[in-house]
Fold:
Amino acid sequence: MTDATAVTDRDALLAVDIQNDFCPGGRLAVPRGDEVVPIVNRIAAKFANVVLTQDWHPPGHLSFASSHPGKRPYETIDVAYGPQVLWPDHCIQGTSGAEFRADLQIPHAVLVVRKGFRRTIDSYSAFYENDRVTPTGLAGYLRERGLTRVLLAGLAFDFCVRYSAEDAHREGFTAIVIEDACRGIDVDGSMAATRRQLASLGIRCIEAKDIV
Ligand SMILES: [Zn+2]
Structure:
């Protein structure tokens, strides 16, 4: 049996954080992150509804290791809402690192969701910040537009794509991850943990070629 997935007008493609800082040469580069760009460009042409997310931090953001004296990137600390991985400074509002990749060509995208803009809360998910209660407004937008299924691609598979997929599912949307249109970071086994978690929720992972 094939995983063929036919795109309809009730689908949204969520293209997650395809920004300079998450690609090679950027400040929080996802290995081979740039490889998703042509794949996502190709897929996006099949969707009437494409939503882009953009990590968008103020300087001194809580998720930056540099905001915590003595801490290094990729360490985990406890903050008010639970554990938080610390990252190199990245995607600072208004900087070139926060811009979308210049070769990301989706002029018909209908919405850009900026996230992580509150200094004291990180936001991996496109739906909820990391406290799991502060919404970004995306669920309401999709519902109001009558969109029922969210297909996800982008960076990074094991963080922002993962949490966006989980929250889409939690919000009652059908979530599908286009795995070869994602690249991951893999901190402490986070790739394997992501695959297990998606499978346990019944969130399908497909390949770009399955989209028809
Ligand atoms: Zn970030």
In short: The mean pLDDT is 96.
